Each structure stands twice: as structure tokens, then as C-alpha cells.
Amino acid sequence: MFTLENLLQLIQSHGLWLLVPFAIIEGPIVTVIAAYIARMGYLNVYAVYAVCVISDLVGDAMYYGIGRLGPAFLPERWLRRLGMTEARQLTLGAHFATKGGRTLLFGKWTHSTGLPIMLASGMARMNFASYMWWNLLGTVPKTAVFVALGYFIGQAYASIDTYIARVSLGLLGVALVAILYFQYRKK
Questions:
Q1: 81 to each of 70, 74, 75, how far by Cα in Å?
Q2: d(CA 123, CA 73)
Q3: Domain enclosing residue 136, as ranges
Q4: Which positions ≥6 away from 179 have C-beta within 8 Å?
């Protein structure tokens, strides 16, 4: 994890655009720290918000690309071991064709399920424009929340990172219980 002191020194010497790779890699906590730095007067908070939204979308596009192109580079037996049979790929494609938007929003807002969902949407060959639109709809409010957290209580960034992880795991647990419940109810 990046410390406030390290990030502050780097941003002071290299400018706001240095935030882009950090925001792609670390996402929420970098957004919180950058907003806190903006509150201290070193950055413009609106620029921080814009850069963090764009960086998040760049990362999302990369995950989509890995999901879409990655299976072509894996041996067939690895795909079978991962459970990616042709039938499952068709099912995945049908899911993202009809419920891709809400699935992506769920992944964006629970944070812990985001990466697998974005990779799966690429594997399902979801329409890229639609994929990016739904990610934008999820990213705009999510980033606004993290910017607000950083701006108003950013001095507690270490605690905030812990809470982000706990809330993400809690939402993942709720999601798993809901999935199990609906699967049980179908039978």
C-alpha cells in the first residue's frame, strides 16, 4: 500500500498525471489519499475526481481485454480445468447479453467481486460500448464516495482502507448467501 508521504512526494515532483497508474493499480485507497491531498491544497479536488474516474475506466477496459483475449492463450485443458466448457461460455454470454449491466454494477459496488465479473464479461464477449457504459455508471458514484471520504476524513486513510476491505468482504458474503438462497429456492 502507498503511504501518504510517498504519494505526496511523488505528486509534488511529477504532477497530477502520476496519479493515473496508482489509481489504476490501487483504486479506492489512492482515490481517498488523493482527495485528502486535495483538501490540503496540493491538488484540485475536481481534477482528482476526473483522473480517478478515467483511471478506473482504463483499468476496467484492461480487465475486459484480459478476459476477452486471455482464454485464447491458455491451453484447452486449462480452460476445461477452470470449468470453461463451450456450454458454460454460451451460458456466460447469454447472461451478460441480458443481465450484464446489473452484474457489472454489482461487481463495481461490492468491490470484491469486481475483477472476476469484469474478466467474465470479456470472456462472454459482452458488447464493449455497453460494458464501458455500465462501468461508467458504476464508477461515477463510487469514485464520488471515495473522493468525499478522502476530502472530509482522509486523515484516517489507513482505517478507511481496512473498512473498505471489511465492507467488501461483507457484501461478498451477503451476495453468496443470496445466490445460495435463490439456487435453493429454484429446486
A1: 15, 11, 10
A2: 12
A3: 4-186
A4: none
CA nearest to 32, candidates 145, 168, 167, 109:
145
Residue written as grid cell 481496512: 162
Q: How many domains does the structure of the chain reveal?
A: 1
Which 3 state secondary structure label does DSSP give 125?
coil
| pTM of the complete model | 0.77
SS3 per-residue string spanning 82-97:
CCCCHHHHHHHHHHHH
Q: Which cell goes with 29? A: 485507497
From the list 117, 119, 122, the residue with the least C-alpha distance to 138 is 117
With a cut of 50, which residues of the chain have pLDDT below it? none
pLDDT score for 54: 95
Tell me, what's the pLDDT at 91? Answer: 87
Rounded Cα gap, residues 27 and 147, in angstroms = 11
Distance of alpha carbon 30 from alpha carbon 53, whole angstroms:
12
Virtual torsion, Cα 107, 112, 113, 117, nearest 10 deg = 80
Closest CA to 102 of 140, 68, 69, 131: 131
